[in-house]
């Protein structure tokens, strides 16, 4: 009966996901190259956006988030943590499926990203972002949640679970980065100034080319263009230098704060959902050829993570890349619903 119920939920979720994906694909490509505000003003999210005001490191902040409540609640909450080149809005299909299955879904934009504040000065750390997230959840009355992170959001989700194990009902990692120490493997480090100069050169073409090869294994669908323009639009807008500066600080955080050495300390049950053809490794484009060949090998990295995390289960998607939830949402969401551990059941 349990599996019949899961299958029914997955089938319903798949239909909703198909509708969501079709709606995105129907949107025309932004040939006129839209420019968005520093906090992504002008770009619509799929659900109402709320904002939490707080002070951090002496600066006033606004942390944007979506809080989606299901029609029939099952009593559990899922927190969705986006990646570096993603926003809370890119979780749209997953939000549909989870809410349809009875989960309350909270999807924040981290400070420095998307619709949240881009501070002039901020010491970025995964500890700080985890604290910001915990404070947000506490303000919303959420004492315990399933924490799900993709890409850089996976690094943050692991840090959150390490800092707040009692508040983490389950950890779900979707192609998380930070499963290896790129610097230790020989990838040259870049200064914040060098990252900043690189980010100032961001264009839709560069974003599209990188995502096609890394996220979608050389494939492309019209639905992906919306997310390209989301990122490129912030880099064309009036706040583009502040966007680039925060992006540079965040890249420095990612490169210098690997979580791989602490994976054995993760206590909550963990589900890894991995696109095997992912080759993501920060700054590998500046690495020597022999180093480049050794990093970003997700088939190996994910299996190592599954062996290292004490209570872990892995589901692999052999033909998918860095964003399996977007490349094959039906297969991904079936595996997600099957792998979740609702409380009390």
UniProtKB/TrEMBL annotation:
It comes from the Bacteria. Its EC number is 3.5.1.-. One of its GO terms (molecular function) is hydrolase activity. Keywords: Hydrolase, Signal. Residues 1-25 form the signal peptide. It is an enzyme of class 3 (hydrolase). InterPro entries: AB_hydrolase_1 (IPR000073), AB_hydrolase_fold (IPR029058), AB_hydrolase_sf (IPR050266). Residues 77-327 form the AB hydrolase-1 domain. PANTHER family: HYDROLASE, PUTATIVE (AFU_ORTHOLOGUE AFUA_2G14860)-RELATED, MONOACYLGLYCEROL LIPASE. This is Aminoacrylate hydrolase RutD. The gene is rutD_1.
